[in-house]
Amino acid sequence: MVRVVHSADGAVQVDPTGKVAGRGAYVCPRAECWTAALRTGSLARVLKTSIGESDLVELKRYAASTFEQQPAGTSAQA
Hints:
Helices cover 40% and strands 17% of the residues. It is built from three helices and three strands. It has helices spanning 31-40, 42-47, 53-67, and strands at 2-6, 12-14, 23-27.
């Protein structure tokens, strides 16, 4: 699972260490999970915030770079 955190400064970002302070949520390490979490707004709802455009771009960039190279049927370990 990949932790995403809404930090005290208002940013929403991937937390690869699992130690960043703030409200966290976990997303499964598959492209379809990230697509659904961002498209439906479920990630924002769990984090109890709206995700700003710049943070959304960074989350999409993370997902694209992480899952783009993964062969079908495998999952990334973050």
